Amino acid sequence: MNVDIGNALAAVAEPGLSRDELATLDERVARAHERIERGRTDGEFGYAALNLPRTTDAEAIRDAVAPVADAETVVTVGIGGSALGARTITSALAADGGTSHVVLDNVDPDHVSRVLSELSLAETAINVVSKSGTTAETLSNFLVVREAMVEAGVDWTERTVVTTGDEGPLAALADEHDLPTLAVPDGVPGRFAALSSVGLVPAAILGCDIEGLLDGAAAAAETLDSSLFECPAYAYGAVAYGLEERGATINAVVPYAERLEPFAEWFAQLWAESLGKDGRGQTPARALGATDQHSQLQLYRAGRRDKLVTLLRPRERPSLDVPAAEADALAHLEGTDLGELLDTELRATEASLAEAGQPNVRVELDRLDPRGLGELLYAMEAACVLVGELAGVETFTQPAVEWGKQAARDVLEGDETEKTAAIEDKHELIVDGEGGR
Ligand SMILES: O=P(O)(O)OC[C@H]1O[C@](O)(CO)[C@@H](O)[C@@H]1O
User: Fold this and answer.
1) What are the beta bridge partners of residue 360?
2) Mean of per-residue pLDDT scores for the chain
């Protein structure tokens, strides 16, 4: 994996970083790296995530999923960090692009019932994931899925694998029914847990090379260094931080590979939930290359100068030639390989952003295989940890999400609290086309 930060330099972009500013930033990266390494060595909360390539037990995951290894479809019931990594991995690596991995990470009744009605539940494995074991959406969806299995005459205890913490209702349920259960790794926040059982179970069930993925992540761990000029992950993190400080408060992540679209979702949680604190943090935007050149690029190129555009591609791609056409006007496409066209689109977009002075960075994998994806996930986690150090925020917690969770819980439990009052006392000015109320 490599990272090209050339188009983030002040010589090209505004906001941009001068060479001197990069050199100054590099001194801070050295200190931050020291802090990160200390956290890794001591297995500190959060930093322990950067040890997963070494601490994750792939064999234990394979043993736990053995009873459902015959599954044609895997349904992951989880949300946030308990779903996004798993989807990213199967989308990138599964032979079918991840279509046999269905993720229920929302409680939309229309969607859930439609998904269940389309599944052959006897050939389905249920992967329930929750670090806390208390997340309402996950537990509700699991009870609905379980009920559907019972109604279909399928023994759900034979088709379910659980990943959760030591305590909580999900752990208790797994224990009561003697379900194959994997532990959420200690000291690892959900959004940093893709390289553990939290992200790897569906990939293991669907026959993906999870060991190769961990090897790729381990290779990326080897590149962590006290200088951003020696470490792709830190180069990316330092530039993202430096540009945010200079006004690039949005990070538009644009993978040029359909299989990496879920990666942009995973990245969005990692970046938003880790760095959105103390009134700062880049807002992640998701796009897809080349598709969103035809929907978002106008804004990225000619809109507010508040963005870093992150372009991502695998260098090696399968090939698919464009056939000849009868019209001369299409002659320029004849014999073009679609992959070549996609890469040309990336380079043209990159140049168009640079021409307009909009900062952009290119992240490249050798190819989209288990090693490549392992490198990418690990590098982005390390980049995020670095930004947290440079920004001086608490990277590994997400206190701001608790208010809403508790408010919903108070309503569901019929309590009358400050939070339920805040819900009831909403300021309303409804515009309904009948003069407003
Ligand atoms: O794994 P859990 O505990 O169900 O939490 C799911 C997600 O919800 C959050 O806690 C946010 O509400 C995320 O940090 C986490 O990834």
Assistant:
1) 309
2) 97
Q: Is 81 in the pocket of ligand 1 (CB under 6 A)?
A: yes
Q: For the segment 392-415, what is each residue's pLDDT rounded down to a tens digit? A: 999 999 999 999 999 999 999 999
Residues of the chain with CATH 3.40.50.10490: 2-38+225-391, 50-213
CA of 354 relative to ligand 1 center, distance in Å: 38
**What is the rounded distance in angstroms from the CA atom of residue 54 to the CA atom of residue 214?**
8
CB neighbours of residue 168 within 10 Å: 17
Could you tell me which CATH number the domain at 2-38+225-391 has? Answer: 3.40.50.10490
Protein residue closest via CA to atom 7 of ligand 1: 80
Q: Judging by beta carbons within 10 Å of its beta carbon (0-12, 13-18, 19+), is residue 157 exposed, middle or buried?
A: middle
d(CA 255, CA 276): 22
Place of tokens 């993202």: 240
Ligand 1 centroid, distance to 170 Cα (angstroms):
14
The answer to whether the CB of 274 is under 6 A from ligand 1 is no
Cα distances (angstroms) measured from residue 415 to each of 139, 371, 411, 426 = 20, 50, 6, 17
Q: Quote the CA–CA distance of 170 and 381 in Å, as a whole number.
A: 27
79 lines ligand 1 (CB under 6 A): yes
Q: How confident is the model at residue 187 (pLDDT cuts 50, 70, 90)?
A: very high
Residue 258 has pLDDT above 80, yes or no: yes
Task: Check residues 324 and 80 and name the one with the higher pLDDT.
Answer: 80
Strand partners, 312: 255, 363
**Residues annotated as catalytic (active site), given as ranges:** 273, 405
Which atom of ligand 1 lies at the shortest distance from residue 198's CA? 1
SS3 11: coil
Q: Give residue 372's identity as a one-letter amino acid code.
A: G
Ligand 1 pocket test: pick from 107, 130, 131, 201 the residue with the most ligand atoms within 8 Å of its Cβ: 131
| CATH 3.40.50.10490 assigned to 50-213 | yes
pTM over 0.95: yes
- 294-to-128, 298, 340, 363, 408 alpha-carbon distances in Å: 38, 8, 18, 21, 39
- The closest residue, in CA terms, to atom 11 on ligand 1 is 401
**185 touches ligand 1 (CB under 6 Å):** no
Task: Decide whether any atom of ligand 1 lies within 6 Å of the 293 Cβ.
Answer: no
How far lies 270's CA from each of 283, 314, 398, in Å?
Answer: 11, 21, 11
E strand segments, 172-316:
181-183, 250-255, 283-286, 307-316
State both tokens at 418.
């400050």
